[in-house]
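Researcher: Please predict.
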Amino acid sequence: MLKVARLNELEIGEKGKVIKVNGKGEINRRIRDMGIVPGALIEVETKATLGDPIEIKVKGYHLTLRSSEAAGIDIEKTE
């Protein structure tokens, strides 16, 4: 059974595989340019106190996303 969530809903240490990047225009292109594409594995490393920004690890790189950007990324949670 798939456990689907938005990237901004994952807790620190949780991992998942990108299913879909929702969004339009420049933000969508920027996210894809950072390597956040369907099939990529992501791990949430840290979150700011109020949940914004979120630091993730994808393809060996450490990236920081705004919570609003992360909300547009569908993730299949993995154990």
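Model: The domain at 4-78 is CATH 2.30.30.90 (SH3 type barrels.).
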